[in-house]
TrEMBL record:
It catalyses: dTDP-beta-L-rhamnose + NADP(+) = dTDP-4-dehydro-beta-L-rhamnose + NADPH + H(+). PANTHER family: DTDP-4-DEHYDRORHAMNOSE REDUCTASE, METHIONINE ADENOSYLTRANSFERASE 2 SUBUNIT BETA. Catalyzes the reduction of dTDP-6-deoxy-L-lyxo-4-hexulose to yield dTDP-L-rhamnose. The keyword Oxidoreductase applies. One of its GO terms (cellular component) is methionine adenosyltransferase complex. Residues 1-283 form the RmlD-like substrate binding domain. Binds 1 Mg(2+) ion per monomer. This is dTDP-4-dehydrorhamnose reductase. Its EC number is 1.1.1.133. Pathway: Carbohydrate biosynthesis; dTDP-L-rhamnose biosynthesis. It comes from the Bacteria.
Length: 290
C-alpha cells in the first residue's frame, strides 16, 4: 500500500511508520492542513492525496482534560479537521482509516463493549471522536474507523509515555519512602502501539470497512495496569488502590473503557496479543536501557 499519515510524530503515528516499513508499504507524513479554505481547501488537499491507497488519520487532540475547558479547540482539532480530510479523501477516491477511542462507548455497561453496543460519550473529547467517526463513515462506504484503548509505547523521553512516567514516579516514591496510588475503579485495555499499528494496516489492506474495535487481549483497572508496570520494571514498591474521585478530574471519563474485538473475531481475524505479554516485550526492547 501507499499511504498518507497524519500525526506521524505521535505515539501511534510513529508506530505506523515502523509497521509500514516492516510490511513494505510506502508511508508519507501529511502535514496538518489549514481549515479556513472552504471547498477549495478540500479540493487542493485531494490533489495531494492522488496516487495513494489510504489516508490514515492518527492526529488528534488527546488532552481530555483540556478539551473540557476549551471545547472549541477540541472540536476544531478532532471534528473539523477530520471532516476536511474525509471530504478530500472522498474527492481523491482514497480510502480513509480514522483512529478513534473505546472511551466513547460511555458508562451504560460494566462489560467490555462490542461494536454493536450503543455509544454515549461522557466527555467533549469522546463526543468529538464520535462526530468525527460519523463524518468519516458518511464520506465514503469503504472507510474504516478503528476504536482503540489505552495506548502505550514509544521512546522513554516522550512526555506522554505512560509506562516510562509511571516508572519515573515509582523510582521517585521509592527513594522518598512512599507508596504509589492508582485508580482501581476505571477499567480499560492497555494497548501496545506496535500491535495496534500493525493490525490497523492489515485491516486496511484487507478492505475491512465500518467500525472495528482494535485492542490488545485482556483488560485491567488503572491500578492493575500500574502495578503490572512497576512489577515488570523490577521496582520493589507498593501500589495501593484508590478511587476515581481522588484524582479530581475535570472530564467525566467513563469508568468502563473496556472493549472486545468482536467484529475481528467474527470475521476470522486472529486474537490480538495479551496486553501483559506486550508490556513485557516493550519493557525488554524499547525500554531495556531505561
Amino acid at each position: 500500500m501507499k499511504l498518507l499519515l497524519t500525526g506521524a510524530g505521535g505515539l501511534l503515528g510513529s508506530a505506523v511508520i515502523e509497521a509500514a516499513a516492516a510490511r513494505g508499504d510506502a508511508c508519507h507524513p501529511l502535514a496538518r492542513p489549514a481549515l479556513d479554505g472552504g471547498a477549495s481547501a478540500a479540493a487542493q488537499l485531494a490533489q495531494r492525496m492522488l496516487g495513494h491507497d489510504l489516508l490514515l488519520h492518527a492526529a488528534a487532540n488527546t488532552n481530555v482534560e483540556q478539551c473540557e475547558t476549551d471545547p472549541d479547540a477540541c472540536y476544531r482539532d478532532n471534528l473539523l479537521l477530520t471532516e476536511l480530510l474525509a471530504q478530500a479523501a472522498a474527492l481523491a477516491g482514497v480510502r480513509m482509516l480514522f483512529v478513534s477511542s473505546t472511551g466513547l462507548y460511555g458508562s451504560a455497561s460494566d462489560a467490555p463493549y462490542r461494536e454493536y453496543d450503543a455509544v454515549a460519550p461522557t466527555t467533549h473529547h469522546h463526543r468529538g471522536k464520535l462526530l468525527a467517526e460519523q463524518a468519516v463513515l458518511a464520506a465514503a462506504p469503504h472507510n474504516l474507523v478503528v476504536r482503540t484503548g489505552w495506548l502505550f509505547g514509544g521512546a522513554p523521553a516522550t512526555p506522554k509515555n505512560f509506562v516510562a512516567r509511571r516508572i519515573d514516579e515509582a523510582r521517585k516514591a521509592l527513594a522518598e519512602g512512599r507508596h504509589l496510588e492508582s485508580n482501581a475503579e476505571q477499567r480499560g485495555v492497555p494497548c501496545w502501539n506496535r500491535d495496534i499499528a500493525m493490525r490497523m494496516l492489515d485491516l486496511a489492506a484487507a478492505g475491512v470497512t465500518g467500525v472495528v474495535n482494535c485492542v490488545n487481549s485482556g483488560n485491567a483497572s488503572r491500578y492493575e495496569y500500574v502495578a503490572a508496570i512497576v512489577k515488570a520494571a523490577g521496582i520493589a514498591i507498593e501500589v495501593q488502590p484508590s478511587t476515581a474521585a481522588g484524582f479530581n478530574r475535570k472530564a467525566r471519563v467513563s469508568n468502563n473503557e473496556m472493549a472486545d474485538n468482536w467484529k475481528m473475531r467474527a470475521l476470522g481475524w486472529p486474537e490480538m496479543p495479551d496486553w501483559r505479554a506486550s508490556l513485557q516485550t516493550y519493557l525488554c526492547t524499547e525500554l531495556a536501557d531505561y
